[in-house]
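Hi R.,

Here's the chain you asked about this morning:
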Amino acid sequence: MDIFDFINNYKNHPVLFIGTGFSLRYLENSYSWESLLKKIAFELKGNDEFFYDLKGKVHDRKSGNYDFMQLASFLQEEFNHQVSEDRNGKFKDINDEYYRKSSEGITSDKFKIYIASLLTDLEKRDKNIDELEVFNLLSKNISSIITTNYDKLIEDVTGFEPLVGNNILLSNPYGSVYKIHGSVDNPEELVFTTEDYDDFDQRYDLIRAQLISLFVHNPIVFLGYSVNDTNIKKILNTIFKYVQFNSEQADLIRNNFLLVEYQEGSESLEILDHDIDVHGYPLRINKLKTDNYIELYRALESLSLPVSTYEIRRVLDNVKDITSGGTIKVSITEDIDQLKNSERILAISPKSKSSIEYTYTDSSQLIIDYYDIIEARSESLIKLIDEFPIARTHWFPIFGFTHIVPSLQKSETLKAQQVTKLHNNIKPNIERFDVHGLNDIDPILETDKIPESYKIDYIFYKVFNNLISAEELKNYLMKIDGDLNSNYKKLLCLYDFKEYENL
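And here is the predicted structure, written out as C-alpha cells:
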C-alpha cells in the first residue's frame, strides 16, 4: 500500500509527532542532541577534548550507547560554574539575561538560557522551502502537533498555538503545538538533562494522560525520529501500560501509527511493517522509509474528511466561550431563521451526524476572519458570500475568496466593485510626501514629516504602486488583528487584490 491509499483510510484528523530530524531538514545551523552538546562544550572550553572526556563517562559498554541526558547534566554543572566565575567574559550576555530574569522573580538556569540562544532565530534552508510550503497547506488537515523540539519552526510554519508545561492542560486539541520538552521562549522549562527528564516523568501525569487520549482517538504520524529513538519507545511503553496489548483498542492504535524514517535519496512511498519491542512483546507498526517528504505532505494535504479542522477549532473556541461564562448570548433554536442578529451561528444538523456548520449572518465576520478562512481554504464559509447583500459602497476582499471558490456567482460583480473602489481611493497629490523616501510601513507610521491623517493613505499609495510589498502589508494587518474600521478594510482589500489578482 502506498502513502496516499494509507492516509485515505483515515477516519479522523491525524496528529503529527515531530522530532529533531524535522528541524535538521529545514533549518540552517540546527543541531542533533549530540552536536548541540558538542557545540556548547567547544564554546565553553575552546576545543573538543572536554566533550570527548564527558562522552567517555556516559558510555555503556554493554549496549554500546551513550547517555546524552547524563552528559548534559555534567555539562550543565561545568557551564554554570565557569560562566558564574567569569561574570563579564565570553558569556556576559547569558549572565545579563540570567540576572534580569532573577530580578523579575523568574528562577532560570544559565545553561538553558544559552541553549535557547543557540536555537533562536535560525534561518530556513532554501533547498527544501517548497516542502515547507506544502507542509503549511497540510496543517488544515492536522488536529494538533506534538514535538520534543525546542525551536519555533513548527508554529511559524503552521500558525498553530505553541503550548508548554501546564498550558497543555485543558487546551484546544485542534490547532495546538504541544511542546512537551519546552520552548526557546521559556528556557527554564526546557527538558534536557537527566534531572529534567526524571522531573518530567514525575510531574506531568495529567499531560501524559491527555497525550495518550490523542493517541487512542487519532492517527499518529511520527516525523523526524529514527525507529530506535528513545522518545518513540517511551511513548509506546507508556501507552501499553494502560491499554491491554491484545485488545481491540491496541489493534486500533497499531493501525493508526505511522513512523516516517529518513532514508537518503529514496523516493519510496510504500508502507512497510516494522516490529518494535514493547514490554518484551513485538509491536507491529507501519513504517515509511523515504526522502520524498513532499509527496508525504501532499498525501496528508489531500485527506478529505466531512468536517475540516478549521471548523472544529471554531466550534471548540465557541464552546469554550460559552462555558467560561460572562455576558455572551446563547440561543438554541430549531429554526435558524429566528436568529436575526449579527452574531455568529453554530448549526448542528440532527439529520446528519457528520454535519457541522459554522456560519455567519452577514459578511463582516468574513472580513474579520479573512486570513484564517484563506489559510484553511474553508469553501463552506466562502460560499456564503452569494447569500449576503454586499453594497457597492462596502469594502469587501473578493479576489482571495474567488481563488478558492471560482464558482461564486457574485464574483465578477464584486471584483469590479473592489477594483473601482481601490482606484478611487488614491488621494490627489498624495505623492507629494514621496520626497521623504519612505518605503516601509513602520517608518511611515513613526515619522512626524507626514501628517497622521495622511499616513494610511500614503501606505495605500505605496502598496498600490508596488513600492511596499503585499507581504509587508499583510504583516501589518495581522498585527492590528481585524479591527473593522474603514482603514483596515480598504487596506485588506488592497492586499487581497495585489496578492490574488493574477492567480
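One quick note: The first strand starts at residue 15 and ends at 18.

Cheers,
M.
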